[in-house]
Structures are given as structure tokens and as C-alpha cells.
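Deliverable D4.2, example record:
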Amino acid sequence: MESVQPRDELAARLMETPIATPFDYDEDGKQDGFLRLYHSRETNGYGYVPIPVISVKNGKGPTAFLVGGNHGNEYEGIVALMNLARDLEQASVQGRVIVLPSLNFPAVMAGTRSSPLDGSNLNRCFPGDAMGSPTHVIAHYVSSVLLPLADLVIDLHAGGRSSQFIPCALVREGRNEHETAKSARLADWFGAPISFVSKGKGGGGSLTLAGECARQAIPCLTAELGGGETLSQQGLKLAMDGVLRILSQCGILASTVPPTMTTTRWVKKGPDTRLHAHVAGIFEPRIELGEYVSPGRVAGLIHLPDFPMRKPEEVRFESSGYVLSRHVPALVGRGDELCTFVTDVIR
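Output generated by the structure prediction step:
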């Protein structure tokens, strides 16, 4: 017979968090400190993992929850939100801004996509588990403590180790047109070169932070700001300017003059807008980010080190669009994504 968990254990998974918060989010003022994620490990049996957190509150108004470091090796958002957190003052805020510039702090300090504590990808762990591994506990804290406070969420990403992106914004399709429109408005304000609406069926779907926001009907914007484990100046500037524009447009920074808004170009992904490697080898790209491609166009060659006399394998596009991202580094395995492309949409 299948075992049934006691009711109080189930309640703990759903309601209580083992993470300690250093201050009261409801207090006015600028506060900073470290969330304490208690975790027993080989080198320290009774220690905690510190996760930096900043809260700036001034009276009544909307709450913005700003996230960097959801993946630890995506740096534009981390640096942008640290810069913003230092500059924010209580007097300039109407409402509340909660900033976690390095949400997956263990991964940030290790320079990895996933956590070195448990090997888990935080952005595939939502809504999390209060009794789970450290990464699931972080996701649970966000889902159960922070998101109920939030009127909007901004989650800043990049391509990490494996991809380079044109700086872009994406929003999840809501349960209805009204919810989708509220998130799309964030993308218009953010002002990335291109934006698109995701149906949430790939890349982690409902297990992502954006998926959890959609479940809780909270407008959420996700940005991809660069990649290759570098720090793009273009992506960093977009992150800083775009966040300030959103905070200004929603009234949280009403007294601040936001950077000039640019018009985003709305695009869409089709059912077959990803190219994957069908063999392992060294990928020689023949495409540039933003380039328009048509069916039959060569995306690149895959050279075969184990068969040096064999001609490289060609990878070709089967439909048309603009190149949104491409793989880095050169070494690829069978099944690796080589590039993503998008097409224009009329809004």
C-alpha cells in the first residue's frame, strides 16, 4: 500500500520555510542583510548559506521583486541589480523594491548554472519544497514568502556557458488575454531590442520562476542579456535602464527621470525554431546573431575529430527567421541546441 504523509508534514512542505529572514519586509526604510539557508554539509555541519537580500520600502504602493543570479553564471543581471541596490534610496521609492541580486548564491560563487550543493537547477525547481534539498528550499521561499508580496517580478538571465543571445525579453502567456497583456506591458517598458511571448512549453515550463508567477497571476518579465559567461556592456546597460523604466512606469520611482524608452520589436517562436546537433563534434557557426535566414541556409558545420578524413556535417535551416541565440563553446554533443530563431509578429 502506498504510504501517506502525515497532515502536519504536508502542511510544512506547503507553508513553512526553514530560511531565516534578517528583517521585516513590511518595515519602511532601506534594509540589507543575508537570508540564512541552513544546510548541513561535510565541511560545516551546523552552518548556513548566506543569500544577499535588500529591501527598500516607503509607504504604500506596488512591490517589485527583482532577481539576478537565478543561474549562477549569468552575470549582467547580478551586476545590474547590485548597482541598483546601492543607488536606491527610501526617499525615491513609493512602495517597495525587494532585490535578490544573487538568488542562487551557491551557484553564483561557484560560477555554475546549477547549485554545487545539490546539483539542482533553481529555475527548474519551482514551486519548491520546504523539506527538500537546498535549491528546492530557495524556490519554496520565493514561492511562499516573496511572490505573495509582489505586484511584478523581473528575472534577469543570460546565455550562461552554452549560449549567446541578442538582448531580449520574454513573458509567459497568462491564463487569459488580460494577464498576458499585463506582462507584455513590462516588456514594452523594459525596451529590449526584441521581445516575445512564451507558451511555457519548453525550457522548464511551469517549473521556472516565470511559470510560478503565471500560476500566482503575477506579471513577470524574463530577460536574456548576453552569454558565454562574459559580462556584456550592452546587456548590462539594458538591464539597468530597463529595470529603472519599469519601476518608473509602475509608479515605484515616480520622482526619478527614467532612461529614454526604446521601442521593442515583438517576435514569436514557432514549433521548429531550434536547431540541434545530430552528431558530436566541433561546431563552426556560419551565422551571426540577428541575421535573417531562409530554408536551406547553412547554420554551420560540425567537424568530427574522431573521423578526421570525413567531411564535416552540414546543419541547415528548414524555415526562415532571425537568429536569436547560438551555441558556445565550439564543442557540441549530440542533441545540443545550436541556435534559436524567431519571426516577426504584428501586435
